[in-house]
Batch of 2 targets.
Target 1
Amino acid sequence: MTARVEVSGIGVELGGRRVVDDVSFAAKPGEVIGIVGPNGSGKSTLLRAMIGILTPAAGSVHIDGLDVAKTKARDRARVLAAVLQDATGDFDLTVQDVVMMGRACYKKAFERDDDRDRTVVADALRAVGAVDLRDRRFAFLSGGERQRVLIARAIAQQPRVLVMDEPTNHLDLRHQFDALALPRKLGVTAVIALHDLNLAAHYCDQLLVLHHGRQVRSGTPEEVLNSETLAEVYGVAAAVTPHPVTGRPHITLDPTHQAETGQPPRSWPVPGRDYLMEKESP
Ligand SMILES: Nc1ncnc2c1ncn2[C@@H]1O[C@H](COP(=O)(O)OP(=O)(O)OP(=O)(O)O)[C@@H](O)[C@H]1O
């Protein structure tokens, strides 16, 4: 199951300061939206406001017409699941117990787990490659193992919308790919905050660039990712060329070059001149 997400004019104040200001976007059912931007630009705050754990000073979030702010936590959890940054917790629980917490929104207080819950939990563990961790104590897992278990807990909620804040944190390369491919595999709509722009370009349909709490660019990765944006928003020099295999925008950073002009140095590889694009190959 998937859903349409509409974020309208969200503004959040923290410590007397507006840290997210007038952010709006819409995700069609099944779309993956990437939220990118420098440290402190408001990505996590926006996601927290979206899932209802921060009360926005302005704006609204609707999922298939349902107003998130006016929905009870239990009902919200059946529609929307979140994996937040470093929400590792110190649960003295097994991995199976932690993932089973994702089923709480479907049960009354003290209701026992049934076969359906156990099947959903087993499937969720399989989806993140963590079946062999099932009986381990959550508190003693590595950072990447914990992250995968928390993703499994979100999957066990069987949401229509998945919100993830830096889901690739602590994950090795293979598991980064798996985590970002998950929304499409599950068929859910996703809103994902990401620092890695190359991964964002590959896995997201639309990108929203935040800078000082404001959305300064939005559109497809092709529309948004260019040398000018990277210079203006991140203050770095970078060449953006089509990825030699996928054709998606690929960013090559130049750590030695100051981003005063936003223009890449002349020595950057040029597609077609320095390497062949796949479609040009014989
Ligand atoms: N509880 C709070 N009180 C006051 N200011 C806060 C609070 N939480 C966050 N902020 C500030 O809000 C701004 C946005 O923070 P946020 O965590 O949303 O940024 P971010 O884009 O997710 O950053 P990062 O890439 O570093 O994770 C920052 O300047 C941060 O210091």
Target 2
Amino acid sequence: MNKKTAKLEAKELNAYYGDFHALKNINLTMEEKNVTAFIGPSGCGKSTFLRTFNRMNDYIDGFRTEGDILLDGRDIYAKDVRVDELRKEVGMVFQKPNPFPKTIFENVVYGLKIQGIKKKAVLEEAAEKSLRRSALWNEVKDKLHQSALALSGGQQQRLCIARALAISPSVLLMDEPASALDPLSTAKIEELIYELKNDYTIVIVTHNMQQAGRVSDHTAFFYMGELVEFAKTKTMFTSPQDNRTQNYITGRFG
Ligand SMILES: Nc1ncnc2c1ncn2[C@@H]1O[C@H](COP(=O)(O)OP(=O)(O)OP(=O)(O)O)[C@@H](O)[C@H]1O
């Protein structure tokens, strides 16, 4: 087996919303082309941590970090890092599907157009590739120029994944990507995550323990801003080392 390399690393990471200490001295390494699930009770800092990897928290007044976040060994909070470049590398999919009120095609190629790509043939090829990759092509290939808002919730979420993939990121952050979807659409998203990890490093926040078990290689359990435990998912669910992890995964709290 190939030795996996570190893709994302947090080193002594602390994060604050004003005076509130939201993430406490987090050290974590995530391997390339792996799926890592973040689990833990509501408010423990999962989304905050996820959003540090593409600097999504930068928009929040009073938010600050200490310590380092590294992508391919480079500090993404360094002064010379361009956030727009970073977000090409680190794509994100949110809890609620959020397609733009545009056509399916325009949604997928949105990021490419912002980058100045205008050639129709290039955009068409990229759209097809991304829609195939997100397992949506067969369902939408005959209505690419219809409104994305007419798609079902599950299709909209796969469209948002296609939109994220179109700009060729190497990391995909997913914040509870299936929690607003029905079981069948959820299963499709899970299958897709399983497929995508051949090419992408994926980090997923989920409240659904079965989902973490099904899709992730590694799981990180957070509690009150601390990373309590990080392990291979199988190990975490069969023999957690910390009582808090044990209590959470057996449903005693959270
Ligand atoms: N914009 C903000 N301003 C101030 N505090 C915030 C902000 N966003 C989150 N927090 C606080 O930071 C803590 C961690 O929130 P976060 O959303 O990261 O938790 P979470 O584990 O993702 O929760 P959930 O599972 O409910 O989504 C919470 O106490 C929350 O109230």
